[in-house]
Design brief:
Two copies of one chain form a homodimer.
Chain A (H helix, E strand, L loop, with lengths): L7 H12 L6 H9 L7 H13 L4 E3 L7 E3 L6 E5 L5 E4 L11 H5 L3 E12 L1 H9 L3
Antiparallel strand pairs in A: 1-2, 3-4
Helix pairs in contact in A: 1-2, 2-3
Chain B binds a DNA duplex (25 and 25 nucleotides) through helix 3.
Chain lengths: 135, 135
DNA sequence: ATACATGCAAACTTTTTGCGTCCCC
DNA sequence: GGGGACGCAAAAAGTTTGCATGTAT
């Protein structure tokens, strides 16, 4: 686990997120977890999600700049996001098999407007800085 | 053009964004535009960028939940985003040619952590609603 | 016992909005 | 001249943080 102490809050947050297939916002997840732990705070939800993201157990999805949505689905898969309501659905299968294929998305009932292939990494400047400051 | 009236502000915003290759934040673009139009407000920059996005002339890039960055580069191309500093660089070439190839990214000096293939569209529920309300 | 984690609320950052004025068509 | 666009500033939305308290180890 990505933390030093396993608390009730963290256990429940991860359980509930894994059960929700809908990639909820922090607020939606907080509402859901509150059914089991009524006094849990939104701050704890954010802190836990951040540590799960750093550990690679959760991905942040959604539109750049807009409210975050959280995905605890394992494995290599893509997403389809609704430009109107922000909803995000999963696409099965490895990323590089799908870039040119709209079929799976259309089967979900979406009209496809755009395909994006994006990489995430560490840029040269930040790599250098990290080497200097001690890796 | 995506607006009804062509003003000095809109002209300059689009010109400067096209000249900046760095995918600036709204604030950075505002600073830059202010050199030519000292009284322009940040609100106008946001309103103009929003209308350019709706018109398909600008793409929003960056990490969900973090500050937006704006891309006026034409054509089908992907992005590589630095997980540390948020910087975003362009990748040349059509989406489906890039999905499985880290070479171009590594040549820019990035360490690749993740590849994402994401679609953008309109979900079934929103399509229905739009048909009801009058297309 | 002792840190680490939590709840709470305040602070912060980024984006949106209301409104009176301005100026493009 | 009229209505869309602007500047300004306040508000909203979303996220982070400080601190006293609770609790897992």
């Amino acid at each position: 686990m990505p933390w030093e102490r396993t608390t009730k809050q963290r256990t429940v947050i991860l359980e509930e997120l894994r059960e929700m297939r809908s990639h909820p916002t922090a607020d939606e997840l907080h509402e859901r977890v509150r059914l089991r732990l009524p006094r849990i705070s939104l701050g704890t939800v954010y802190r836990t999600l951040e540590s799960l993201e750093r550990a690679g157990m959760v991905r942040v999805v959604g539109h750049p700049g807009s409210q975050r949505r959280f995905d605890a689905t394992g494995g290599d898969h893509g997403h389809i996001r609704c430009i109107r309501c922000g909803r995000v659905d999963d696409l099965a299968g490895p990323a590089d098999a799908r870039a040119g294929d709209d079929g799976a998305v259309e089967r979900l009932g979406y009209v496809v407007l755009e395909r994006r292939v994006d990489f995430v990494g560490i840029c040269p400047a930040c790599r250098e800085k990290e080497e200097r400051d001690g890796s």
